[in-house]
């Protein structure tokens, strides 16, 4: 899981650097904590102005549901959240 | 950058505007803001009763009530903007406007007037985030 997280961060770092954006990254292990809480907890230490989060968009027929992670972040965040929908929609599980 | 700002005149509209005006990289001299007021349609029964001219007048007045203060505010800032209004389902009209205006982003509140205290996010914001092809900035 750690390796996977490091890989995600390395990819993100590379993208940011190639765009000429200063980047810092952090891998947080948040067992027993909801994703939204773990993200929002970082707002103060980083003095963040904005959270950027991806979402799956609409999942399930006729259901309006964001990725539950994004939804938690949006609900708990004290600062504005920029939500970006993933262009490829994963197929629905049968 | 071209930004759509859905406006229903609620506190969230003010917050979204304040956010934009304090972030020059979003709303600088080369950017464009489209303020969009969407109103729910009158039931056909009402339209038949009072006539479509009165209904149209009503919508126009409502739009003015929301858009005029915004326009006054925007005039004091050096930003290109257009204000327009339409009648329909808010989320659908916002999504349509994204395509029509070739907008790059939507800035809106998590709730508008249709506030339900316990809801995580208003249904309009939820539908827009779920279906928009462009990033949506949710102002808190």
Structural notes for this entry:
The complex is a heterodimer of chains A (94) and B (140). With 94 residues, chain A is of the alpha+beta class. Helix content of chain A is 38%, strand content 11%. Chain A is built from 4 helices and 2 strands. Chain A has a two-stranded parallel sheet. The longest helix of chain A has 17 residues, at 2-18. The two termini of chain A are 26 Å apart. By secondary structure, chain B is of the alpha/beta class. Chain B has helices spanning 11-21, 44-50, 52-75, 90-101, 123-131, and strands at 2-6, 32-39, 80-87, 105-109, 136-139. At the A-B interface, helix 4 and strand 2 of A face helix 5 and strand 5 of B. Strand 2 of chain A pairs antiparallel with strand 5 of chain B, so a sheet runs across the interface.
Characteristics of this structure?
heterodimer, A: 94 residues, alpha+beta, 4 helices, B: 140 residues, alpha/beta, five-stranded parallel β-sheet, 5 helices, 21% strand, globular
Brief rundown of the structure:
The complex is a heterodimer of chains A (94) and B (140). Chain A has 94 residues and is of the alpha+beta class. Chain A has helices spanning 2-18, 35-40, 43-46, 68-76; strands at 51-55, 81-85.
* Topology of chain B as a string of helices (H) and strands (E): EHEHHEHEHE
Number of strands of chain B: 5
Instruction: Outline the biggest β-sheet of chain A.
Output: 2 strands, parallel
Strand content of chain A: 5-15%
Strand order of the largest sheet of chain A: 1-2
Please give the count of helices of chain B. 5
User: Any low-confidence stretches of chain A, pLDDT <50, length ≥5?
Assistant: 60-64
Mean pLDDT of chain B: 89
Radius of gyration of chain A: 15 Å
How far is the first residue's CA from the last residue's CA of chain A? 26 Å
> C-alpha Rg of chain B, in Å?
15 Å
Structural class of chain A: alpha+beta
The oligomerization state is heterodimer
List the uncertain runs of chain B: none
Global shape of chain B: globular
Largest interface: A-B, 20 and 18 residues
Q: In which order are the strands of the major sheet of chain B placed?
A: 3-2-1-4-5
């Amino acid at each position: 899981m750690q390796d996977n997280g490091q890989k995600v961060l390395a990819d993100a770092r590379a993208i940011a650097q190639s765009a000429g954006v200063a980047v810092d990254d952090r891998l947080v292990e948040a067992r027993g904590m909801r994703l939204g809480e773990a993200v929002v907890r970082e707002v103060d230490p980083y003095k963040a102005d904005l959270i950027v989060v991806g979402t799956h968009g609409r999942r399930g027929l006729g259901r309006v549901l964001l990725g539950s992670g994004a939804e938690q972040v949006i609900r708990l965040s004290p600062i504005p959240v920029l939500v970006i929908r993933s262009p490829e929609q994963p197929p629905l599980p049968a | 950058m071209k930004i759509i700002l859905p406006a229903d005149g609620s506190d969230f509209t003010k917050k979204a505007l304040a956010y934009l005006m304090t972030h020059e990289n979003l709303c600088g001299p080369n950017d464009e803001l489209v303020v969009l007021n969407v109103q729910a349609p009158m039931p056909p029964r009402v339209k038949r009763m009072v006539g479509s001219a009165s209904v149209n007048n009503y919508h126009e007045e409502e739009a003015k009530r929301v858009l005029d203060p915004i326009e006054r505010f925007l005039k004091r800032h050096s930003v290109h903007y257009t204000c327009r209004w339409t009648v329909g389902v808010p989320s659908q009209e916002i999504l349509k406007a994204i395509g029509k205006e070739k907008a790059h982003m939507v800035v809106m509140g998590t709730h508008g007037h249709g506030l339900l205290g316990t809801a995580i996010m208003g249904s309009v914001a939820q539908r827009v985030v779920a279906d928009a092809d462009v990033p949506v900035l949710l102002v808190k």
